[in-house]
Amino acid sequence: MVKNEEFNYVKAKQELVGLLDWFESGDPDLDKALENYKQAELLIGQIEKYLKDTEKKLKISVSKG
């Protein structure tokens, strides 16, 4: 995922699913595994932040309503 581009939850989730599928495929390429692992960690962090921020926004909206 490009860091300068606005975060897109759907794209990030799709990319993460693709990485998880790759790991499940059993490809023995260790260098690629390390690269994909780092990318998966980054995506998980971005997704978690997005979900926490969204949860906060929803709580604020509910408490105002």
Structure notes:
The chain has 65 residues and is mostly helical. It has one domain (9-64). It is 80% helix and 0% strand.
Fraction in helix: over 70%
What structural category do the secondary elements indicate? mainly alpha
- H and E string: HH
Largest sheet: none
Count of distinct strands: 0
Average pLDDT metric? 90
Principal-axes geometry comes out as elongated
- Distance N to C terminus: 36 Å
Q: Name the beta content range.
A: under 5%
Count the helices. How many? 2
Low-confidence stretches: none
Rounded to an integer, what's the Rg over CA atoms? Answer: 15 Å
Q: Any idea how many domains?
A: 1
Outline the fold blueprint.
Elements: H1 9-25, H2 30-64
Question: What keywords describe this structure?
Answer:
mainly alpha, 2 helices, 80% helix, 65 residues, single chain
